[in-house]
Amino acid sequence: MQARFVVTPILSKIQALYALPRNSARFKEYLQQLQGDTKDDMVLPIAGFNPMAKEVAIHKIEELQALRAEDILREVAESLNQSIPRSVHRKFQIVLNLGDDVQGAWTNRYATDYTSKFKLNPMVKRGFCVPYFYTSESFSEEGIRRRAFAYAYRTWYWLEHGPQRTLKELLQQEVYVARSLGALREAPTITDFSEIADFYQTAMDEDDYSVLFNFFYGDEASEALGYTTFDLPAEAGFAYADYLANQ
Q1: Which residues of 117-138 are buried (b: 16+ CB within 10 A; e: fewer)?
Q2: Cβ contacts of residue 110 below 8 Å, gap of 6+?
Q3: Is there a contact between 202 and 138 (Cβ–Cβ < 8 Å)?
Q4: What is the DSSP letter of 78?
Q5: pLDDT value of position 45
């Protein structure tokens, strides 16, 4: 059976890029890898990497390599390809991205994370599946495996259902992801969902970005971007999706 997911290694290329002096030549090389000769498109999905990254990103790439992150992605791809229906003929390149939310001034982790999970059209239409990691995180083999599976499940959900617009639709996507992860799901950090459920019932048909963002990432993340808050804890929407998936 033809593979539906393939891993495109990127860490060694980015490591070589970061070995260059932090100047305009490095930035031009980054753009060449991102856009190729198209100048107005994307041939390699590396927009999450900071082209002018400093030491923290370099060290985090070394951590990912020490954990054999891209080998884990290959194991995930092999597992997915064995379970995907034969009627599915799309092929996707899995390309790990590392967002620098520590020293990368242009990267807000939560805004980047939202885009990577809920605004999938640019990636899916080009045949990319892009699991995001962040320099502020601690990495583990299990966490890498969980993240890769989750982004693959979002890709297939998008293929079946198309772009998600309302809070209800976004939550349904994440319930599907949590249910598909099964035993790989993380332990819940929230145990009382009564207030989250009440908010969801009043806002489920909302499509305003600030409302959707606050539901999934909570008040602290919203405040950092100047958005309206609704007294929701961090990662509320993802925790609620996990709770519903377990019912």
Answers
A1: bbebeebbeeebbbbbbbbebe
A2: 213, 217, 221, 224, 225
A3: no
A4: H
A5: 96
The series of mean pLDDT values per 10 residues for the chain, 247 residues long, is: 81 96 95 88 94 93 98 96 73 96 80 97 95 96 98 93 95 97 90 96 98 98 95 97 94
Listed in sequence order, the DSSP H helices in the chain are: 11-18, 24-35, 55-66, 69-83, 109-118, 121-125, 141-161, 167-181, 194-203, 209-224, 236-245
Give me 113's structure tokens: 């994370």
For the beta carbon of residue 240, count every other beta carbon within 10 angstroms.
Answer: 24
Q: What is the pLDDT of residue 1?
A: 42
Only one residue has tokens 């229906």, namely 85
Handedness of CA 172, 174, 178, 180 (dihedral sign): positive
d(CA 247, CA 245): 6
One-letter amino acid identity for 160? E
CB atoms within 10 A of CB 204: 14
Q: Please give the model's pTM, rounded to 2 decimal places.
A: 0.94
Q: CB within 8 A of 17, min separation 6: which ones?
A: 26, 29, 30, 33, 51
- Residue 72 is which amino acid? I
Euclidean distance between CA atoms 149 and 27, whole angstroms: 31
